[in-house]
Please model this.
Amino acid sequence: LDGGEPRSANDTPRGDDHYQLMDIQPNDVIDTWPREQRIGFYRGCLLKYTMRMGTKDECSKEIAKARRYTEKLLEALEAKDE
Model:
């Protein structure tokens, strides 16, 4: 992403406090799902945050969330079939 070592979207700090309090992150569970299910989930999240931009949080916050799901979707698409 920055030209250096590849990193996971999971390395991106979570912005919402309620996620930081969890021992197990939802994305860690989702990443155990079959590839096609991960792709569908991350596509849906990307759609949700893009479509609701500016209606719940500031536009930049919503798009930052969409960017995170774009990164997760890209990781799932690039993953080898499991």
